[in-house]
Write a structure and sequence with these properties.
The chain is α/β, with parallel strands linked by helices. The chain has a single domain, classed as P-loop containing nucleotide triphosphate hydrolases (Rossmann fold, 3-Layer(aba) Sandwich). It is about 45% helix and about 25% strand. It is built from seven helices and nine strands; from the N terminus they run βαβββαββαβαβααβα. The strands form two sheets. Strands 2-7-1-8-9 form a five-stranded parallel β-sheet, with helices on both faces. β5 and β6 form a beta hairpin. The longest helix has 17 residues.
Length: about 180
């Protein structure tokens, strides 16, 4: 059976990083799935996801050498997913990537058989999470909530959906079930 590339998307604050961190060990041991680290032009200790921190010069050098399978810019940073993804897939290992909703159409062109996993969250809970983390103004939060509503309405019916409004363990179990775990 061919390996699958899973492309996770969702609003900022939906809990993608928390979900991936919670599922990491179980995915490796129970479902032959690896989570690809993203290469990002932000500090390693910036919080959130476990990523590979690169300077802008390092990122651009890797990009020019063809070392990224996918790459995009968002939130004043550059993001990349390495070509090692192709090696893992060729070896029969499923790969889970934290993608970008803005890059999704390009990602599908790059890898037509990818499966989208949409991490959804109730708008009131999302607003509370964004407020609690304290990184954005009230108007920026409202803009994020509007984008969340648009994204939720536009997600392809074939996308796998996980509601991360409740206990993280419930969403984690659903993710593991989606990728062939227990």
């Amino acid at each position: 059976m061919a390996a699958t590339l899973y492309y996770i998307i969702g609003a900022s604050g939906a809990g993608k990083d928390s979900l991936l961190n919670a599922a990491r060990e179980q995915l490796v041991t129970q479902s032959n799935t690896l989570i690809a680290h993203r290469y990002i032009t932000r500090a390693a200790d910036a919080g959130g996801e476990n990523h590979v921190a690169l300077s802008v010069a390092e990122f651009e050098s890797r990009q020019s050498k063809g070392l990224f399978k996918m790459y995009w810019a968002a939130n004043n940073c550059q993001y990349g997913l390495g070509i090692e993804i192709d090696q893992w897939l060729a070896a029969g290992i499923n790969v889970l990537v934290n993608g970008s909703r803005g890059y999704l159409a390009t990602a599908k062109q790059c890898h037509p058989s990818l499966k989208v996993i949409y991490i959804d969250v109730d708008s009131a809970i999302l607003k509370q999470r964004l407020t609690n983390r304290g990184r954005e103004s009230a108007s920026e939060i409202e803009a994020r909530l509007a984008r969340h509503k648009q994204l939720s309405a536009s997600i392809d019916k074939e996308a796998l959906r996980i509601d991360n409004s409740g206990e993280l363990s419930v969403a984690c179990n659903q993710l593991i079930e989606f990728v062939g775990g227990c």
